[in-house]
């Protein structure tokens, strides 16, 4: 008697062939980059334990560079997956949540004992919440298209770099005495709050996607100059980048408000046109 609910693939040979099918390297390449970023974050923690803060900072910065590469590599190779997104979030939590909080703690705010540890916990938890909210926002199909130009809150890699600003200043020769541990702890908590805030920040995803032909050479020269300055004066450049990022937040807020006002006006024009019985205006953006 035949089975009441026959298997859709009764041939065991066919199942074995499917399991043995080779996976192209391009499918695992983005995940490999993500794992390298995770290794960099974990190594930064080890360097912090050993008191080698230069190498620890280098590990966090290297993880941030790899984090900027893996997602773009996955989209370029058309190998994006839910597994890769989850792995990326876990790696980001370690590299940009746990590692910076631990480095700041063992570097200065451990003198505050429990209060310093609580400040590190707040930063790490804020990074986790920031990443969870980012993953949830990716599944929202109702957000306007121009929202892709912004992040909600400070992204985790930028938060990590900004959180390490006191170490950058100390390595530049700016005195950060032990008596300033309380201010360092408050600063770390403030960066964590910025990560979970609703403050819009510029994403920069489209930056460099299209370069005008007449500015290609200046862009190449500027890139070489920045790379040379970064290699010669790494902590000065990192401190400048962190300060510049924090300084851009009011500008990002103003740009958000202007784009939001334009979007509301366009939607209002579309509703009025639709109510009159004619087609919507051509300049109404599609969500």
TrEMBL record:
Q: What is its EC number?
A: 2.7.8.8
InterPro entries xref list: CDP-alcohol_PTase-I (IPR050324), CDP-diaglyc--ser_O-PTrfase (IPR004533), CDP-OH_P_trans (IPR000462), CDP-OH_P_trans_C (IPR012616), CDP-OH_PTrfase_TM_dom (IPR043130), CDP_ALCOHOL_P_TRANSF_CS (IPR048254)
Source superkingdom: Bacteria
Example GO molecular function term? Answer: CDP-diacylglycerol-serine O-phosphatidyltransferase activity
Instruction: Describe its membrane topology.
Output: Multi-pass membrane protein
Q: Where in the cell is it found?
A: Endomembrane system
| Keyword Ribosomal protein applies | no
Q: Where is this region: Disordered?
A: 265-287
Q: Which reactions does this protein catalyse?
A: a CDP-1,2-diacyl-sn-glycerol + L-serine = a 1,2-diacyl-sn-glycero-3-phospho-L-serine + CMP + H(+)
Q: Name one GO cellular component term.
A: membrane
The annotated regions of Basic and acidic residues compositional bias extend over: 265-274
Q: Which example biological process does GO assign this protein?
A: phospholipid biosynthetic process
Transmembrane annotation, as ranges:
23-45, 51-69, 90-109, 115-138, 150-169, 181-199, 211-231, 237-256
Task: Work out whether the entry's keyword set contains Transcription.
Answer: no
Domain CDP-alcohol phosphatidyltransferase C-terminal per the UniProt entry, residue ranges? 216-250
Pfam families associated with the record: CDP-OH_P_tran_2 (PF08009), CDP-OH_P_transf (PF01066)
Protein keywords: Lipid biosynthesis, Lipid metabolism, Membrane, Phospholipid biosynthesis, Phospholipid metabolism, Transferase, Transmembrane, Transmembrane helix
Q: What class of enzyme is it?
A: transferase
Task: Give the UniProt family note.
Answer: Belongs to the CDP-alcohol phosphatidyltransferase class-I family.
Listed PANTHER family: CDP-DIACYLGLYCEROL--GLYCEROL-3-PHOSPHATE 3-PHOSPHATIDYLTRANSFERASE-RELATED, CDP-DIACYLGLYCEROL--SERINE O-PHOSPHATIDYLTRANSFERASE
NCBIfam families registered for this protein in UniProt:
pssA
Protein name according to UniProt: CDP-diacylglycerol--serine O-phosphatidyltransferase
The gene name reads: pssA
């Amino acid at each position: 008697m035949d089975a009441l609910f026959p298997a859709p693939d009764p041939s065991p040979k066919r199942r074995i062939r499917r399991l043995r099918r080779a996976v192209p390297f391009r499918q695992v390449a983005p995940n490999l980059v993500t794992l390298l970023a995770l290794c960099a974050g974990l190594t930064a923690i080890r360097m912090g334990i050993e008191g080698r803060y230069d190498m620890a900072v280098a590990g966090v910065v290297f993880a941030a560079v790899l984090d900027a590469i893996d997602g773009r590599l996955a989209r370029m190779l058309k190998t994006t997956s839910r597994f890769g997104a989850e792995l990326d979030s876990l790696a980001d939590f370690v590299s940009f949540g746990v590692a910076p909080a631990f480095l700041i703690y063992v570097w200065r705010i451990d003198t505050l004992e429990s209060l310093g540890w609580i400040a590190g916990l707040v930063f790490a938890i804020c990074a986790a919440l920031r990443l969870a909210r980012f993953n949830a926002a990716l599944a929202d199909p109702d957000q306007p298209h121009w929202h892709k130009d912004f992040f909600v809150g400070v992204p985790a890699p930028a938060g990590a770099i900004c959180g390490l600003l006191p170490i950058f200043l100390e390595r530049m020769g700016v005195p950060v005495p032990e008596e300033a541990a309380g201010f360092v702890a408050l600063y770390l908590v403030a960066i964590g709050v910025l990560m979970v805030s609703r403050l819009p920040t510029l994403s920069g995803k489209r930056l460099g996607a299209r370069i005008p032909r007449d500015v290609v050479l200046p862009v190449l020269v500027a890139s070489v100059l920045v790379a040379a300055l970064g290699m010669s004066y790494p902590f000065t450049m990192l401190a400048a980048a962190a300060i510049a990022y924090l300084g851009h937040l009011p500008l990002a807020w103003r740009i958000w408000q202007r784009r939001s006002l334009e979007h509301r006006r366009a939607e209002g024009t579309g509703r009025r046109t639709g109510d009159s019985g004619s087609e919507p205006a051509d300049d109404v953006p599609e969500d």
